[in-house]
């Protein structure tokens, strides 16, 4: 049984857990245009096939998409696109997820968003929803341009747990609720005292 004297943390995945669907590809379409994004995915069709055959993985594929689309792109332009995207995807938040986030906040629990989606739009969304912390994937950049890489690893799978440990320390010292909907959340759910798998799909 979890020690109720421990501080309580609620870690939420974003795409498919808080929202009704993916938000990454729609952001790419907004920022770069559907034609450019379609060409980028088509150029990586062989890499996609390797992912399907388990000869590569989704993290590697995402790195290649980011490299293809983001390199030398303007930071101010894509930051503005991220803010616009955040406004659009507020409507995708599941009512039951919002209710649960509010419940945790009212209980004084620490809210952490842990997502493989991008900081460019998640920063605004996390603030809007009342999260204290955001752990997510971030394209690396200079002051004015993206360089085509990522800051660290894609925030998925074991990386979600590593990020939580970096933020919180030993996870056994907290009472952890974790909310997720996919294989990319498996390790985070396994590390939680209270794992919640696809809890909001009816809302």
TrEMBL record:
InterPro entries: HAD-like_SerB, HAD-like_sf, HAD_hydro_SerB1, HAD_sf. GO terms for cellular component: cytoplasm. GO terms for molecular function: L-phosphoserine phosphatase activity; magnesium ion binding. Keywords: Membrane, Transmembrane, Transmembrane helix. The chain crosses the membrane at residues 31-53. It holds the Pfam family HAD. GO terms for biological process: L-serine biosynthetic process. This is Phosphoserine phosphatase. The lineage of its organism: Bacteria, Pseudomonadati, Pseudomonadota, Gammaproteobacteria, Chromatiales.
């Amino acid at each position: 049984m979890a020690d109720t004297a421990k501080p309580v943390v609620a870690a939420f995945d974003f795409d498919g857990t808080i929202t009704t669907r993916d938000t990454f590809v729609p952001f790419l379409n907004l920022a770069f245009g559907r034609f450019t994004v379609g060409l980028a995915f088509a150029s990586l069709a062989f890499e996609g096939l390797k992912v399907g055959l388990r000869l590569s993985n989704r993290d590697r594929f995402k790195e290649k998409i980011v490299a293809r689309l983001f390199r030398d792109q303007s930071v101010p332009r894509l930051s503005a696109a991220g803010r616009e995207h955040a406004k659009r995807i507020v409507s995708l938040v599941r009512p039951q997820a919002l209710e649960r986030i509010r419940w945790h906040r009212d209980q004084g629990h620490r809210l952490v968003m842990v997502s493989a989606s991008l900081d460019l739009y998640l920063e605004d969304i996390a603030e809007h929803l009342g999260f204290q912390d955001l752990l997510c994937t971030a394209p690396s950049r200079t002051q004015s341009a993206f360089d085509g890489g990522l800051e660290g690893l894609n925030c998925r799978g074991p990386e979600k747990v590593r990020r939580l440990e970096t933020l919180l320390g030993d996870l056994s010292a907290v009472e952890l609720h974790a909310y997720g909907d996919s294989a990319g959340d498996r390790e985070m759910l396994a590390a939680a005292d209270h794992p919640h798998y696809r809890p909001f799909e009816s809302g």
